Amino acid sequence: MNDRKSTGRLVTFESHWKDFEKAFKDTFTDIAESVKAENDLKSLKMTSSDIDSYIATFAKLLKMAGYTETEHGSLELFKKGLPTGLNIRIINNSVMPPSTLRGWIEAAHTEQLKYLQTLEFSNKKKPSPQALALAKRLGVRSHGNNHDPNAMDVDSGNFNHGGFTPLSDEEKQKL
């Protein structure tokens, strides 16, 4: 930069800063970053039901690894990180499964939203027969529709004093 200044070029001359930026990146860039990102991308899995975090992390790692969205390998890596059930729902609920990463991301978003809404709706149903049998055995009584049917009633009037028996070893093992 000093040599260029001595030839009469201004410090604000754009090529000074481009050269400085290139030298800076060459000096301080982690040359293994793309390899690390590619390894992280290959092992990335969607956890719990958080599709948004998975997509954001995938996009960041994809860019760091030097991949583009249009590469065939990008789509395969994305699908590999999704839960099997989500991939199956995308395939089964599409007239033609998406052939692009962007299309698969949109389909994954849609199917995950439908799954979460279904899960929310199904949780409003009655408890399973196993849960009801256990509740009866433990002396739990269900309240009206305004209360959680799985909640235990801790009222002292609800317990059969002296008649409460602990679970047998067989019942514990089964549970």
Key words describing this protein structure:
2 domains, mainly alpha, 175 residues
What does this structure look like?
The chain has 2 domains: 33-122, no CATH class; 129-174, no CATH class. The chain has helices at residues 2-6, 14-28, 33-43, 51-64, 72-81, 84-92, 101-122, 129-138, 169-174. The chain starts with a helix and ends with a helix. It has 9 helices and no strands. Helix 3 runs antiparallel to helix 4 and helix 6 packs across helix 7 (101-122). It is mainly α and 175 residues long.
Q: Helices and strands in order, then pairings?
A:
Elements: H1 2-6, H2 14-28, H3 33-43, H4 51-64, H5 72-81, H6 84-92, H7 101-122, H8 129-138, H9 169-174
Helix pairs in contact: 3-4, 6-7
Number of helices: 9
Overall, the morphology is elongated
Helix content: 55-70%
Question: How many domains would you count in the coordinates?
Answer: 2
Share of residues in strands: under 5%
Compute the separation of the termini in Å. Answer: 75 Å
Structural class: mainly alpha
Low-confidence stretches: 142-147, 156-161
| Major sheet description | none
Estimate the mean pLDDT confidence.
78
Q: Rg, please?
A: 29 Å
Give the ordered list of helices and strands.
Answer: HHHHHHHHH
**Count of β-strands:** 0
Concise account of the structure shown:
With 175 residues, the protein is mostly helical. Helix content is 58%, strand content 0%.
